[in-house]
Design goal:
The chain is α/β, with parallel strands linked by helices. It has two domains: about 290 residues, SGNH hydrolase (Rossmann fold, 3-Layer(aba) Sandwich), CATH 3.40.50.1110; about 80 residues, Immunoglobulin-like (Sandwich). The protein has eleven helices and 13 strands. The strands form three sheets. The protein has a six-stranded mixed β-sheet, sandwiched between helices. GO terms for molecular function: hydrolase activity. Keywords: Hydrolase, Signal. InterPro entries: SEST-like (IPR037460), SGNH_hydro (IPR013830), SGNH_hydro_sf (IPR036514).
Length: about 375
């Protein structure tokens, strides 16, 4: 491998530009309900040129083998929309990318799961930085760059906060997973395989790690879940330094037969990290379900000789409510606003607790939960 070939390959990667409108693709929609999943991110999420490609091609170059597609299948998503796009920046989550609409346009109030990222590398020019490091004649890009790129990475925090807030506003009940970048080069690199000095290899991975750490911090600040691709078991053995056919990240000169471009996931890499994203999605969904159930509460209010029992859902997916006092069944309501009237005298005869057994349809399950109701004074 020569440095010249590597520069040429990276240059081809950097010249992917917007040429035509290519909105997010609804990969499938199997009807209402269930997990309704939207994937966002840059080329690391999209899988440019990774075969087979989805219809539409330029500028987004979305692969049918990207990790989002595999995550959608693993969680049994009812609807899956791929809004990832090559060359995207954080800003393109909420603003157009040339003629490409904002990625957030794929999200609506019915969306139940969103993955965001990886994203941010294009904001700070990590690919162009790698290109500047490929030099056997004048190595030392870390010394040349100083803190410039690191400072740019730190500056993305505000944009990430804005983007994540916009997603939560548009899809308030969605579970949100922020995905970081992976492990590209091991410590000290592999100068005989990839044309980077040991120092420059550590510098490049350090930039990638910094961007991932900012994504992690932003996820935590926004109450989202973080998927750390670096933690995927086996990552250290499948970097760009691994043999062709074993790489999860393609090297600076492509050697895989799947179409992967320099410093991007191979098909094998997409398959390897998908369980990491899937596990994070399941954690996020469990936390989302807990929040939905907590939003459902019951109340009992005296109205003359009657007591009005009610379940307040905040728009939540309650489909049926059984009201009880102790073991005595008071009645059922199968439609909003889930109200039942009973006499004050009837309640006073029973010393048990007031409860509502609410059947709640969550995106990934339907279950019945017990909602406690405080007794009003008139029934004590």
């Amino acid at each position: 491998m020569t440095a010249g070939l590597a520069v040429t390959a990276l240059a081809m990667t950097m010249t992917m530009t917007t040429t035509a409108a290519n909105a997010a693709i609804d990969v499938y929609d199997n009807g209402p309900g269930g997990e309704r999943y939207v994937a966002m991110g840059d080329s690391v999420a999209a899988g440019p040129i990774l075969l087979p490609q989805r219809p539409g091609g330029s500028p987004c170059f979305r692969s049918e083998k990207n990790f989002a597609t595999q995550t959608a299948a693993a969680i049994g998503a009812r609807k899956f929309t791929d809004a990832t796009c090559s060359s995207a920046t954080i800003d393109n989550i909420t603003t157009p990318q040339g003629s490409e609409p904002p990625q957030i346009d794929a999200v609506d109030k019915n969306t139940t799961l969103v993955t965001v990222g990886p994203i941010g590398a294009n904001d700070v020019g990590i690919v162009s930085t790698v290109s500047g490091c490929i030099s056997v004649v004048a190595p030392g890009c870390k010394e040349r760059d100083g803190q410039t790129v690191h400072n740019k990475i730190e500056a993305t925090r505000a944009e990430l906060a804005t983007a994540l807030a916009a997603i939560k506003k548009k899809a308030p009940r969605a579970a949100v997973v922020v995905v970081g970048y992976g492990l590209y080069i091991p410590p000290a690199g592999c100068p005989l395989v990839q044309p980077l000095t040991s120092s420059d290899a550590d510098y490049i991975q350090g930039l990638v790690d910094h961007m991932s750490n900012v994504l992690r911090d932003s996820a935590r600040a926004a109450g989202a879940t973080f998927a750390d691709l670096r933690a995927t078991p086996g990552s250290m053995d499948h970097t760009a330094c691994a043999a062709p056919g074993q790489r999860w990240i393609e090297g600076l000169v492509p050697a895989s037969a799947d179409g992967a471009i320099p410093f991007h996931p191979t098909a094998l890499g997409m398959q390897a990290v998908a369980p990491t994203v899937t596990a994070a999605a399941r954690r996020a969904a469990a936390e989302r379900n807990t929040r939905i159930v907590k939003d459902v509460r019951g109340e009992a209010v005296c109205r003359g000789s009657k007591v009005r029992l009610r379940v307040l859902t905040k728009g939540g997916p309650v489909v049926r409510t059984d009201f009880k006092v102790g073991n005595k069944f008071l009645g059922r309501d199968s439609s909003a606003p889930f109200v039942r009237f009973t006499s004050r005298k009837a309640l006073k005869k029973h010393s048990g607790k007031l409860t509502a057994r609410a059947k709640i349809t969550l995106p990934d399950t339907t279950a019945t939960y017990t909602i406690k109701i405080s007794r009003p004074r008139c029934s004590r």
